[in-house]
Please model this.
Amino acid sequence: MSAAPAPEAPPPPQPAYAARLPEWARPREVEPRGSGRMRLVETTLLLLAALLLAVATINDVVRQTHVNARLVTDLRTWRTVTGHDYHNLAIAQDIYGHTTREVVCGNTSPGGPKERVQLCLVITGPVVGGLRASHGGWYLPPKVEDLRAYRYGCFGTALARGQCPR
Amino acid sequence: MSVAAQSELGLTRSRSAQWAPALAAVCGLLLVAATAEIVLDGALGHSALIPKSPEIAGWMRGLGERLGYRVFLIAILVSAGAYAGLLALAHAVSKRAAIILIGTLQLIVFAGPILLSTDVFSYIAYARMGVEHGLNPYTHGPLAIANDPIYRYVGQDWKHVATAYGPLYTLLSYPLALLGLKGALWGMKLAALLASAGTLALTWRCACIRGFSPVAAILAVGVNPLYLIYGLGGAHNDLIMLLLMMAAVSLTFAGRDAAAAVSVVAGALVKVTVAALLPFMILARRSRAQLLGAAGALALGAVIAYAAFGIHGVDVVAALNRDSAFVSTDSFPAEIAHLFGKPGVFPVDHDLLKAALVVIVLHLLWRTWRGYDWVAAAGWTLLAISVTSTWLLAWYILWPLPLAVIARDRRLLVATLFVQGLFVVHQITPLLAPVS
Model:
């Protein structure tokens, strides 16, 4: 048997000086009964808020699902362009979310993540035939993050845009 | 209604009453299986979901596979479904069965590795900064102890960040720094487990006082997947905050106003969020003892914090302002921004959210003044804080849960579980479109 709910215990005694307070300022155990309009308004607002949160959540799941599908295409593009079937690839997205331009970096020879010279490809555009376009990129020395200061050997659009320091 | 129809209805009810305990048992078993799956797979070590950690659950290795998003998310969805089923069938669960289930789940999580968060390593790093290195954790981030063995486990985002936790929590964590890395980690896990047990015991007590089913109340909190996997699994100090929060509620119910106020202030000196309870308690009771208790505890806390950490240990507002500017992808404001085609949350949005929160709190204060249940009002406030926060983590939406199960306004429990449900739904993207 479950522990059955008991009737509510009496509220704790009011502080002694509460009795000396004017009627309007005394603590109340229950709210005065109104017409129920307040509860109706609150419940309506809560339902509207719930609807907004639910729609925003579903929208975000769908949006993120599309982003993930695009990232999978980016990885496939890097593997196709380089001819290396490596799994430890790093993807950097446009942090502002304004564009679908992504940079995918991976080793140029077998090894642990970022243990070898890395090749980074700038990937843009729509998905065509399961791949996206890559018209440029750069190299990175081993064991560094993709920061401009470390880039070298820019090619394609990256060279034209001066994305390597030298 | 005819006699035949009444008899038919009675039979249906009796049949469903027969099945309810069995269905509740199935839900309980599913929860245990899903939790064990996460813990056993997590014990294999570092993955996208398991932070790097000193090895503390090595004896579990070999029983599972490395924890990936797919298994984790399926286990969380199964847990959420079983949890919902268990709540619906709570009337058919005995006191003993509920306690055994909660104890089993909590011990499984306690025995396992740290799940999903690096926060506990930050707690230990701050403690070691103070004890081992003589540094003030309110003025330095863990980067200041880059040579300490804990440093490599601290989350990347937090290496530069000084502690935002209350001075009482920081001082309580100091003795654990003397136990070494693994000892400190177990100490943190044990503190979280004991805090959880205390919170559940107080929830039981408060539910009895309020005339609610205590079994349903502790099941709603104790087997909640976010509470178990994210809260207890990460050994978060939010559980200590919840313990002090529920102690305050329980003391208020017992008419011990001064002690209740001291408990809230102590909670706020662990994590400042719980201070949201205080105005509602004061408005509901309007007791001088409460004001004196709160003022005395606050003054004592401030003196101790100042003596231990200087002015930075007292200035919690600065830490709050700093952290409120962070944005996490799971936060509802970020999701709403995406819905309206914006890339993210802008400074003006922070101001709008703060304004909305102020309006909500003022409305709740006014209603509490008129006699609305102060427990519900405090719960709504904690829920509103988590929903309007741009930095939302799973354990933040646990804050209102123990209050929701004992609040007279049952809409709070529905709203809290709804928000938690949305959080879980938002996690499932890797299940729909895995990136590999």
